[in-house]
């Protein structure tokens, strides 16, 4: 089996990728603090090049919260700070970028899963498939034989019904004649 299908290799690669992303988040957080910039989950995610959801994960969220508290102590905000239209537009654009990134990630994962399923199908042995085809062919032949027999039985029964209906009609006619003759004889 190649390294793409080995679950241990895949798990190890995911673990390394996760650790790398977490380290990038912590590095980005330190950089933002040193630059004196406002610490937000979106800003940290953007700087680290990761999705925002990772910044809310346990083990990361606590670091961001602590940095935000340190930032508030050193840079108190004016009492009447309000979100401006420009700020809201920026946040909207960041959200749109994140949605695009998440969709791209989803598409990549979907392709990877399709590729992996294709490899699993390729791995099925030809003998298993041949055996299954033979089994289905035998079942099909049995069903065709059964259909042929049932069709013949149906034709035989229809002929018998037609013959019995003719006999019944003749018997009724004969019975009517007998009744008429009996009625005339009285």
TrEMBL record:
Asked if Coiled coil is a keyword of the record, the answer is yes
- Domain of life here? Bacteria
Keywords assigned by UniProt? Coiled coil
Per the record, the coiled-coil ranges are 85-167
Q: What is this protein called?
A: Transposase
